[in-house]
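Entry 14. Ran structure prediction on the chain below.
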Amino acid sequence: MKKATSYLPCLLLLLVIFPNPLFGQYDFIEFLSRENGLPTEKIADWATDPKGNLWLGATQGLYRFDGTAFQHFPLVSTADSVSLRDVYKIAIDSRGKIFFSLLNNGFGVFDPVSLKFKHYLNNPSQPNSLPSNTVDFIVDAENVTFLILESDGFALFDKSTETFRHFLPSQWVNAKRYPRANDLLTCTRDRNHPERMWITGVEGLFMFDLSLQNLSFFPKDEAPFPFATARCSYIHSDGWLYIGTWGGGVQVFNTLEKHWEKQILTDANKHFDLSSVSAIAEGLDGELW
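Output, structure tokens:
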């Protein structure tokens, strides 16, 4: 089934914030829009490279912002010479290579130094090709890139061989009890154990060990609270995994002791509704935003 993307709405799409080192306050925020240089207001994802450039995935393709100007990089398919657009998800490795999904149209790798672009599509006659043309989530993991496929488990892209390996969680769990085990949602790499990938799914939480090629499962019916559909996930420096959900608040899993800790639905003073959370980040002092 084709996925309808949700692009970020108008005007505020980029914030450039400069903190005051003496007072800890924000002195200057610059809003970038079509009126002052933003090439498109329909941006699906962004990421920064090792040089600090901001890369944008948009309906019109791939853009780079160097702090001064935007540059558009045309993407021409190596498969059929067709110009490609609708860059959906982006990840960037330590060498600056750009890995991204194209909306219902496969997976791409772009080298900003050589300007070489390679487009990968599913080919049923090739067992090591991209398993599905719909890639919903991308995480870089050094030698491999981790791809979540729509309702079809996940895949690892080997950068050295340019081949894909397909994994179906249903092969590790009781598929009759958990029929939607292959419906995965988000993924984050463990900061304390980089070989571990924590994956949220419809049926629960998974941990995939890249070195052992093994999957551990923490089913939703073992959580001490109603398990909700994940929108985002983030591993704090203390080893706790925070999962932002639709309607279920922030659900917290202890990755060190391997058990659920709590569910957060509001703040301590009950002033704010945290039942639906779409993004989580960590501040300089370890606080979560």
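Confidence is low (pLDDT under 50) at residues 1-5, 7-27. Will compare against last week's run tomorrow.
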